[in-house]
């Protein structure tokens, strides 16, 4: 199951699990759409593609909440 990380690893932008606009690689590194564009949709960690992260809403989000730990390091 996806961890649904709450922030962009490049800029720290909030990326709620129930909203579009997050991009992930196969290792779940997570970026906002602007940073993903700047990275040419390639993950700087693994070199893999950055793809749209699906949203998680309603009962499923309540049963499987997003992780709270933020990854952005300023």
TrEMBL record:
InterPro entries: DUF1272 (IPR010696). It holds the Pfam family DUF1272. This is DUF1272 domain-containing protein. The lineage of its organism: Bacteria, Pseudomonadati, Pseudomonadota, Alphaproteobacteria, Sphingomonadales.
